[in-house]
Amino acid sequence: MKHIIAIATALTLSTHAAVAEKVGEVGVDWVGNDIVIEAVQDPKVQGVTCHLAYFDRSIIDRLSNGNWFEDPSNSSIACRQTGPIVIGDIDRSSDGENVFSERQSIILKSIRIKRIFDEANNTLIYLAHATELTQGSAKMSISTVPLYTPIPAE
Question: Whole-prediction pTM value?
Answer without folding.
Answer: 0.75
